Amino acid sequence: MFQALVLDKDPEFRAAVRAVDDSFLPEGDITVAVEYSTLNYKDGLAITNRSPVVRSWPMVAGIDGAGTVLASASPQWRPGDAFVLNGFGVGETHKGCLAGRARLKSQWLVRRPAGFSARQAMAIGTAGYTAMLCVLALEGHGLRPGSGEVLVTGATGGVGSVAIALLAKLGHQVVAATGKAAEADYLKALGASAIVERAELAVPGKALQKERWAAVVDAVGSHTLANALAQTRYGGAVAACGLAQGLDLPGSVAPFILRGVALLGIDSVMAPMARREEAWSRLERDLDPALLERMTTEIGLDEAVAAAQKLMAGEVRGRIVVRTS
């Protein structure tokens, strides 16, 4: 028996930690011991039932996991191997990793970099891995240190916190957008050189505005993304990876056709393995472990439901790591 955070709809939605056994696990060619999981925005949506994230019931929550292999039918993995899992529908259509054990598909797993413990890997989680995918996309578009200011929206969240730490270490001048004035010291400690008020970006704005940003990492969407695009300099790029403000994009084609701005969509769920491995390799190289620890809060599995509610209420800073064993 082991503990799992189970989501059920029989007859009404319920999220609760309870004891289950291996017979509760889905099909897969690898069984793993999950040492740590985490709470991302999508986990918060699923655990609070705020959005139809879950497609199969009952579901074990948790789109991320890190630990060791217990049993494997794959020649690529052996018992004792350390793994990281992000996405692939886990916690949505396939029972997830907010549990002591999980049964997964071997092609979903990334070998955990030697420089990270299981706890550190989950302090990064999908949020930090997504932030690295954003940085890679912006670099692929030509962003280099000295290019100019880089805006990070949703700055105190998981994606934003890791993005600031990464970009600052790489030599970029980072500006953080937040509605939490009390967190200015936290953001500057991560590497932000300046803070802008979230409200300046969150309301309808002109189709073209004063050029400022060489690049943007946006985890917010809606009016914030539209304004970020309108303020991006000629030839700049915006990496869009989130929808905290909304799914809509109430903007104009003007930034694209008059300033050559690029909108780069970032998908972390189904990203190909080579891209995942590149992202984790770069995280091992470019993310300061001390800054990662600064943005991390650790909780037990029995605290995850309450923490998810706080996450959706905007009351969480940085990353939450969940002890699952």
Which percent band covers the strand fraction?
25-35%
Q: Structural class, judged by helices and strands?
A: alpha/beta
- Name of the CATH homologous superfamily of the largest domain: Medium-chain alcohol dehydrogenases, catalytic domain
* Approximate shape: globular
Rounded to an integer in angstroms, the radius of gyration calculated over CA atoms is 19 Å
Kindly state the mean pLDDT as a whole number?
Answer: 97
Uncertain stretches of 5 or more adjacent residues:
none
CATH architecture heading of the largest domain: Alpha-Beta Complex
* Main sheet characteristics: 7 strands, mixed
Specify the helix fraction band. 25-40%
What is this structure, in a nutshell?
29% of the residues lie in helices and 29% in strands. It is of the alpha/beta class. The strands form three sheets. Strands 3, 5, 6, 7, 8, 15 and 16 form a seven-stranded mixed β-sheet that branches.
